[in-house]
Design a protein that fits this description.
It is a single chain. It contains 13 helices and twelve strands. It has three domains: 1-65, no CATH class; 80-99 and 163-314, 2-Layer Sandwich (D-amino Acid Aminotransferase, Chain A, domain 1); 104-159. The strands form three sheets. The protein has a six-stranded antiparallel sheet. A hairpin with a 5-residue loop joins strand 5 (178-184) and strand 6 (190-199). It is an alpha+beta fold.
């Protein structure tokens, strides 16, 4: 885990522990001690302590969760490091998974200002994505910044994806993707570990969990939201902030088709056995947004508040 990410998590934990301590009628120091014990014993990060509601759980329940420490160890066993950069770099990912990507896109480095201007003028709305960005950082709708800045950022420009109208109703300011965690067993058969809808926060242009989004857990058999959403701070959202839409019971359009689409994507690099896929649902199909080589184990489990370690071990 990057030091900056851990530091931000500690800041978030500092802010969140005060109402937790007040709710339980205990000194905040009790929870700080409990957090550091959970970190030493299970490898739980600050975000996971909040998101998994570890402070509510006993030792047996805590041991069910797949933590950051285990994630780094399992990743080495499950994913061939030769594919790391392909998943991390957005340009290389788009090239490798071109069969699943239909939106127009352009990598700015090496392009002339005239070529970039032609791309921008050719689309009503364009997303700007730094090629190695993560957690939604730096991703935004183009708003007229200098073309030289785009070249210097080594940015990827992408035609804005028009999502299914049902997905847009959840939050119209962002493309609300479905995050599906898959794992291949030893016979290369794919299985879904977890699935959630990622919905952007109020007026947000991205749906990312770390940028104010909400995750709504899906029943993986039917693609139906089965519980209230959760934020990265562990807050329950029965109604989505901003739109006041009640999301429980929402059914992802063409769920079976989406599952088949993702299962096909798992076979592009079968030696990358555990991947988190972000897919936009369209009126007549699907659009692959990205695949995450080291998909956040927190988001895998926080929306449903269900530990997945035992299930992952089953397929290793």
């Amino acid at each position: 885990m990057a030091i900056s990410s851990y530091t931000n998590g500690l800041k978030r934990l500092t802010h969140t522990l005060a109402p937790i301590a007040e709710h339980y009628g205990k000194p905040k120091m009790v929870f700080w001690i409990d957090y550091f014990w959970a970190y030493l014993r299970y490898g739980i990060t600050p975000n996971q302590y909040i998101g998994f509601r570890i402070y509510e759980k006993n030792g047996r329940e805590r041991a069910e969760f797949y933590t950051h420490r285990q994630h780094k160890a399992f990743e080495k066993k499950l994913n061939d490091p030769a594919h790391y950069w392909t998943f991390w770099n957005k340009q290389e990912f788009n090239e490798a998974f071109s069969e699943f990507i239909h939106r127009d896109w352009m990598y700015c480095e090496g392009k002339t200002p005239e070529e970039i201007r032609a791309f921008l003028d050719g689309h009503a709305k364009v997303m700007v994505k730094p090629t190695s960005a993560s957690s939604g950082h730096g991703i935004h709708v183009y708003k007229g910044e200098a073309i030289t800045d785009l070249i210097n950022q080594k940015a990827l420009l992408e035609e804005f994806v028009v999502q299914h109208h049902k997905m847009s109703e959840l939050n119209p300011s962002s493309v609300n993707t479905v995050r599906v965690y898959t794992i291949l067993d030893r016979s290369n058969t794919p299985h879904i570990l977890s699935a959630s809808i990622r919905v952007g926060g109020v007026n947000s242009e991205v749906d990312n969990y770390h940028s104010g989004g909400v995750g709504y857990p899906l029943d993986v058999e039917h693609g139906v939201v089965m519980a209230a959403g959760r934020t990265i701070t562990g807050e329950n959202c029965l109604y989505h902030p901003g739109t006041e839409t009640k999301v429980i019971g929402f059914e992802v359009p063409n769920w079976k088709g989406l599952v088949n689409y993702i299962y096909r994507a798992t076979q592009v690099f079968p030696s990358a056995r555990m991947i988190a896929w972000d897919v936009a649902v369209l009126e007549n199909g699907f659009e692959m947004i990205e695949g995450n080589y080291n998909g956040d184990p927190g988001f895998m489990q926080t929306p449903s508040n269900t530990g997945k370690k035992r299930e992952i071990l089953k397929y290793m």
